Amino acid sequence: MLDHSLMHVFEMMAARWKGYRDSAQMLRNLTQLGPREIGTIAADCGLTSEQFCDVVGRGPHAADELGNVMTALGINAEALQHKDRTAFNDMTRVCAACSHKAACRRSIRNGTIVTDHVAFCNNSDVLAEFQRASGAVRMRSGTKTH
Asked: Is 59 exposed, middle or buried (0-12, 13-18, 19+ CB in 10 A)?
């Protein structure tokens, strides 16, 4: 029988392989579309064709961290998406292209993202604006105060 840690490594490898396959399939599907169709889809998302292709090419979970950071900061992501779709899409694009994923995930996991994100998050200024506008202030412990 396999050691638990070895099994965990196999599971992580399988998940990464599946993510790679999913991303590759999305890119194949994207290449079957014409420039006009891509432009229309991109415009619907509030992005240029180039931005759209970049985000899609990074995979379906490239900006998953953004929702966690917004929740930790007391920002309602769904409400923001409806209120200011352009800003939300831009933050998603920035998050998807971020090179600080490991630090972000570690801070989310450790429960320190509220204070840590300002050191590495390229969305930190925009997040601070939306946090102030919503009146939400999150403390390190995760409790919300007004």
From this structure: middle
pLDDT band at 114 (very low <50, low <70, confident <90, very high): very high
Show Cβ contacts of residue 107 under 8 Å, excluding neighbours closer than 6 positions. Answer: 113, 116, 117
The rounded distance, in Å, linking the Cα atoms of 107 and 101 is: 10
Rg of the chain taking only CA atoms, in angstroms: 18
* pLDDT above 50 (res 104): yes
Distance from the Cα of residue 121 to its chain's centroid: 11
pTM over cut 0.70: no
Residues 24/58, Cβ–Cβ less than 8 Å: no
Residue 114 contacts residue 121 (beta carbons within 8 Å) = no
How confident is the model at residue 138, as a pLDDT?
Answer: 53
C-alpha separations of 62 from 39, 47, 79, 115, 144 in Å: 21, 16, 21, 22, 28
